[in-house]
Amino acid sequence: MFDLPDDQILPLSREHAFYTWSAQARVNPIPVKRAKGVYFWDVDEKRYLDFNSMTMCVNIGHGDERVICAIQAQAAELPYAAPGMATKVRALASRAVAEISPGGRLSKVLFTLGGADANENAIKIARAHTGRHKILARYRSYHGATAGAMAATGDPRRVTWEPNLMTGVVHFLDPYRYRSTFHRSNPSVSDADFTLDYLNHLEEIIRYEGPETIAAILMESVTGTNGIIIPPEGYMQGVRALCDKYGILMIADEVMSGFGRTGKWFAIQHWGVIPDLMTMAKGLTSAYAPLGAVAMKPEIAATFNETAFESGLTYTAHPISLAAALANIEVMRSDKIVEHAAAMGPVLHKMLADQGESHPSVGEVRSIGLFGIIEVVKNRETKEPMAPWNGSSPEMNALKKYCSEHGLFVYTHWHTILIIPPLIISEEQLREGFDVLDKALEITDKAVLAS
Ligand SMILES: Cc1ncc(COP(=O)(O)O)c(C=O)c1O
Predict the structure, then answer these.
(1) Within the chain, which residues score under 50 in pLDDT?
(2) With respect to CATH, is domain 66-334 assigned 3.40.1110.10?
């Protein structure tokens, strides 16, 4: 369609393209050409198995003609409409999101361009609804790269930009059992006590901050890049109860954990909790077009019945993105993709557990649905990570390089390996990826044996 020889893609990109999260002189992008199912190919026809759904977002897999055709048809009919207009796709996509929302209760939907601005808008709405300012969020979290979403983010990506971020965010600790601050001397604490300790910690912070100042608690339902931290039974219900007790709104960030990733439409449904607002992006269109959304209870939207919502986006409810979302949801329904992810959950879990059995550098594995992680450690007793907090190490770099050379596209974050494949993956394809990982982990095993 566009004229550029394959061998010019890299040099021209290096000259003109500015890459995010990267030192520009050191970027080394894969010149990707096409993708289908769980694979993509570079310009040299090298095939990669996509173990990260690109950016944890291509949930239905690559190259689904049904979504592509819906985008093409929408582009031909009406590629854009002004934010104040009503369109067929907007009506249908809003209803579709409302229908799949927890309990069908989040029935008003604001469409954004991605996850960060979904969180920004959720925060604004929560502040306006409650008349309060503070947002409580967790340290092990990522909520997006715009000023408000970055302020809510707990991980070091926030620290880089401080102090020029949105005010009013207070962070608290995650119920992260493997490295639990409260239980170093009592690692075998019961699940119930573990959960209670983290809920008490949260309540104490609510009291210190003053409940009357707190608009919302914003949390990833299952923490993504910060460690696939799966809340213990009772935790989400406990947070919901604290929100109700103190008149605080609960915002679930389902940008990464939503759309089937954990084996349910939204991760929070594992705990039967209905948040007041829920943000989503990524799997909403499986990244066939950019889109985010805030789904909210109608009583929260009603705050703006007579008072205008003084905010907007030129591309809110963009018809092409909404066509992608509608077709994507339809594909997920007709192909039973959420059910498939749920069925593959134990398969992934077993493969992860097997790695734990055979590799001394595997400290812990965790997964829910097709959302998995390997914590790579230098020492199982001390749990010393294979790379430092917010850093890299020669061993983790070598592991990643091995995977890439052997056609496995996998995301490593500090000392962890994330396993987040397209939800259509088969057992055989998962095995194909794990065969590469099995060899790659021999690299980090050597660092254990040597220490
Ligand atoms: C949990 C979570 N929230 C928000 C975001 C931000 O989404 P976006 O990059 O679409 O702005 C991300 C992105 O990775 C995410 O994982």
Answers:
(1) none
(2) no
